[in-house]
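Session log. Operator J.P. requested a structure for one protein chain; no other inputs attached. Running the standard single-chain path with token output.
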Amino acid sequence: MNTAKTFMLMAALTALFMVAGQAMGGQQGMVIALLLALGLNFFAYWNSDKMALSMNHAREVSPAEAHDLHALVAGLAARAGLPKPKVYVIDESTPNAFATGRNPEHAAVAVTTGLLRVLDRHELEGVIAHELAHIKNRDILIGSIAAVMAGAISYLATMAQWAMLFGGSRNDEEGGGSNPLVLLVTMLVAPLAATLIQMAISRGREYMADATGAEICGHPKSLASALDKLANYNAQQPMDVNPASAQMYIVNPLSGGTIANLFSTHPPMEERIRRLRSM
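Structure written below.
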């Protein structure tokens, strides 16, 4: 069901992108928007992992530097039927983690130094298993494409704003110009709709990664305990990260009140913990 929902949401995001392009320039605008989407997705496929690791100041560690962590990742990867991903560490006292990579053969798991300090072994296994689940379920690629598409739709909305200022209300001789009302709707509604779709995709994949991760490590309650700890630490001491990469982490690394949580890419922590404890 989660996979089917993700497919439908991705289709909706693509359709929204094409509608925005059509609003900008008719049939030609829709074709240009589709080509732009394909180009951006190609770029995201090859470069999202490098950008994510660099943006979050992650450094690769060798087995000699972090023997226990490498052994833990290797054991869980073998249990999940995955190649062992590269291992990265972020020098950050707040406990958190994320995975990145375009496919299981080119993947990486990054953990903060705070995560290694705060969690016991079973809890750490649960967190690593959750990140391996993202790799197994191809969530990193899906999330990267969704993020790029949402960003591109926002860019089209900005273009629509400029189109209204510079003759967007005039139709050309063939009737292919932009309708000012459609441009206005595109400018206001498209970015919000894209954000909501991206949020729905991310939340659904987090629930799936929790369930798959619990199966990999065999300790659903340990993962639930780890999430509880991580949520409390990140609420008290938010991380200084780029908001664009916040969705990648196992728990939201940014601070936010009730209104901000409504638009969070992470599902409610209470519900994630409840589902894990009921397994």
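Operator note: Confidence is low (pLDDT under 50) at residues 169-177.
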